[in-house]
Amino acid sequence: MERPTDTMNDASSQQSRATHERAVPHRTRIKLCGLSRQEDVAHAIDLGADAFGLVFYPPSPRSVGVADAVDLTHDIPPFVSVVGLFVNPAPDWISEVTSNVPLTMLQFHGDESPEECEKLANLAGLPWLRAIRIAADTRQADLVESALNYSSASGLLLDAHVEGYGGGGKTFDWSLIPAELGHRAVLSGGLNAQNVSDAIHRVRPFAVDVSSGIEVPGARGVKDHARMAAFVRTVREADAG
Q1: Closest listed residue to residue 160, CA positions, set 145, 150, 174, 180
Q2: What are phi and psi of 208, to 5 degrees?
Q3: What angle do CA 39, 129, 87 make, to 5 degrees?
Q4: Active site members
């Protein structure tokens, strides 16, 4: 038989949790991707970005080689993640990059199966993200299925489907994202300082990822420091409001 004191304790505990949740607002993590210059990395760190991404896919205009990546990551402070983006990589390429560059996470952005992702990640000894490209005919059920198939991933990077691989600076229908995937979602695809606040309020993703939205217009891979600052500031304002 439940005692009155038990009921009171349960009610008190629930009220305490609710008060804590109101007192500690959600903090959306920020990943700035496609960095290729030392000054851009330094600025991302100064802005308080949680992570920055390096592209290891040679066809991309944002791609960096191993030697350049070593230079870009030689003085990274604690608790800043360095994410390596790969597209259908060979095991030898993963080994070469990760044995020289201090990556903290892999991001698979090609046609890698769950088994291939796990095999490559185990080879590197690193956690991984899986990019899910969302097309016009993608259904909510498709995202749920992808989340189940890639359940070993640390998170799902949700991006708009474009021709080829990598981001295309295009948004997609955010209403497709099931609420239960929010805690695993890294929202990407056409984000910038003008729309990221709306994205955060509608999706409540764990993190946001931006590349083209913080670049100098017409110069892919060259980041605009004012746009970087505006993006980070807008995310923090969205969290606070």
Answers
A1: 174
A2: -125, 150
A3: 75
A4: 33, 159
Quick one: 145 exposed, middle or buried, by C-beta within 10 A (0-12, 13-18, 19+)?
A: exposed
Q: What is the pTM of this model?
A: 0.87
Interatomic CA distance for residues 41 and 46, integer angstroms: 9
Contacts 24+ apart (CB under 8 A), 5-8: none
Other CB atoms within 10 A of residue 193 CB: 19
How far apart are alpha carbons 154 and 80 in whole angstroms?
16
In a 10 Å sphere around its CB, with 0-12 CB exposed, 13-18 middle and 19+ buried, how is residue 214 labelled? buried
Side-chain-side CA neighbours of 172 within 13 Å: the count stands at 23
- Name the fold adopted by 27-240: TIM Barrel (3.20.20)
Side chain identity at 8, as an amino acid letter?
Answer: M
Residue 141 CB partners (closer than 8 Å, separation 6+) = none
Q: Are 73 and 45 in contact (CB under 8 A)?
A: no
pLDDT of residue 8: 46
Domain ranges in the chain are 27-240
Rg over CA atoms, the chain: 19
pLDDT tens digits along 140-191 = 999 999 999 999 999 999 998 776 665 566 789 999 998 888 889 999 999 9
| Chain position carrying tokens 């695993």 | 184
